[in-house]
Amino acid sequence: MQGWRVEMEDAHTAVVSIPHNHLKDWSFFAVFDGHAGARVSAVCAEELLEEITQNEDFRGKPDLTDGTEIQPSIEDVFAGIKKGFLNLDEKMRAMPEVVSGEDKSGSTAVCSIVSPKHIFFANCGDSRAVLCRNGKCAFATTDHKPVNPRERERIQNAGGSVMIQRVNGSLAVSRALGDFEYKNVEGKGPCEQLVSPEPEIFVEERNPDDQFMVLACDGIWDVMSNDELCAFIEYKMKLTSSLEEVCNQVVDTCLIKGSRDNMSIVLIAFEGAPSISEEAVKKDKEIDEKIELKVKEILDREPQENHDFSYVLHAVAEELHDHFPPGGGFHSKKSVIENVYHKLRPNEDQDDDLA
User: Which keywords has UniProt assigned to this entry (predicted)?
Assistant: First the structure.
């Protein structure tokens, strides 16, 4: 979703079956949050998977009995992901528009490779992946910010500084693909520059209790914590089987919460994912009914000058505080409050102030 930004600079990839014979039961998902343009994020979405799976570190070793490729080991995957990121970064450095200085864009990257036994995560920047298990956030990647001690040390060793929580007072992430104006320090390797393209890689064993995984850019994480997002998605998955609808609800709620960035989210459901629950559907309907009664009550008891939408919205939020969906709060029910209000006061102007 473009959100309030003038341009949409995010991109994503979702490949349920990687198109190589020995990887057909493996999947790849990624989100790329571009900045200063959309070129790098678009190239990453198109080419990162191939750069990872086709480099010599990742490719499975031939089976000596029949010559077919065997699946890569955990070590192979780690090495292949790192090489794929670094290879793609060098490849993009040679693009004509980069060489000419016309394009100065960059992109964060968060991706996941799902095999039958493991879930691999790779992160470069401040997009984030979380894994929900048994209703809780069981794993989350770490954001790469210039203020992090390890990141600050690398930046300073490369002759840079961290000012107002940014690299040289400008870039808000300390690792990214592209951003080549921050990668020209002589005598330093690609992972020692002011901005590093090196991903941080993690692996989790798959578990029958795994419910879902989320990859999202900082437009989501700016306004929702890991636990809030896991709780909200779990709640919504009990109301609908449509993952697209769940994602739309997340994005809408983040927009109402005040996110001003582009927003991208990829939601992957595992075997242990919640299914539609009649009890949950009934409870959600009861929340809507409580909202309708509360809006009527507020309009009946308050003087006319307190009938503007902003006042009613905040009153409902305060008085029904403990009844709203977990993780989403009253923001996730704003449209319900709004619909009831306009049904009762069809000629009233709406004030969207949520402060």
Answer: Cytoplasm, Hydrolase, Lipoprotein, Magnesium, Manganese, Membrane, Metal-binding, Myristate, Phosphoprotein, Protein phosphatase
Q: Where are the alpha helices (DSSP H) in 111-268?
A: 149-157, 218-221, 226-237, 243-257
pLDDT tens, residue by residue, 139-176: 999 999 999 999 999 999 999 999 999 999 999 999 99
Q: Which CATH number fits domain 10-143+180-269: 3.40.630.30, 2.60.120.580, 2.40.30.170, 3.60.40.10?
A: 3.60.40.10
Token pair of 227 as six digits: 């636990």
Q: Whole-angstrom Cα distance, residue 106 to residue 104?
A: 7
pLDDT digits (tens, 9 = 90+) for 218-228: 999 999 999 99
pTM: 0.92
Alpha-carbon gap, residue 85 to 107, rounded angstroms: 12
Up-side HSE of residue 265: CA atoms within 13 Å toward CB?
A: 28
Phi-psi region of 67 (alpha: psi -120 to 50; beta: other; left: phi over 0): left
Is 82:199 a contact under the CB 8 Å cutoff?
Answer: yes
For CA atoms 10, 15, 20, 26, the dihedral sign is positive
